[in-house]
Amino acid sequence: MDGGARCEEDSACVECQDNYLPGNRGEVSKKDNQVDVTLDDQMESLCDHVQSVDLDSRSLCYALPVPFGALVRVLDFSQLFYLVSDAFLARLFSSTPCLEDLIIHSPRQFSDASLFVRSLACPHIHRLELVACLRISDAGLESILTGCRNIQTLVLINSSSLLTDRFLSQLACSPTIPRNLRVLNLSNASHSITHHNPGLGSIAIYCPSIVHLDISRLPSVVTDEFLEFLTCTFSLQVLNLAYCHEITDRGLIYLANSCPELREVDITALSLVTDKGILELEHHAKSHRFIKGIPTQH
After folding, report:
1. By three-state DSSP, how is residue 59 classified?
2. Which of 85, 116, 188, 197 could form a disulfide with 201 if both were Cys (CB 3.0 to 4.6 A apart)?
């Protein structure tokens, strides 16, 4: 729907883009005439009449019947954390069966219940990005593995302490996901996970298609021993090791010899790494390589 378009079916429908902004007390306010529509009513209508949802700009538009919810491919709640709840998402997921990308940041009421519903209602998910979702656990994430077999990007930044080796092992043993997974971000994820197999080591061994791996801020998990597991990830091109303080030159040397496609490595705050390890990475560079703070050309 264009920015100036109106819903012809419902005179109470709000306009898109800059004409409406979320109010401070759960209202959507029109700037010109100060006409208020409660956000609860707006969300109720959205679940049944989704046409498009531009959640980045915090605008909401609806005008068309339920079948048009099947046109929605992306839901980005990164700026609308205060709207997210299990009840709301359960209704929204049922109206968007072709959803491919779901992005949720710092939600107040988002738990395994939403993941259970989503795995059944939205089987075509390609990208799942959950940032600071503190109420999810292995059980909810495992339901995604069985219901959504085509995940290519999985982001679990600052995730719940309820995430354990069990989920990582299930992810690695999934019949289809290891072949499809291209991007995995576990930055500052649960410190209940380990570098063993089963555990993060399972990902390194059984997910050879990963191109971008972010395991930063896991100092007790990502060590030289874990880097030895990466021999099977021949496709790896981007690796973030920032703030994994236990990594030494030994780990980088092993990495340089086992990941021939590696293009970019973030070694921010690796105090035990010296020029020896960095030079080894440079020596094995297949093409342009960027080491955080040290761009080089081989």
Report:
1. strand
2. 197
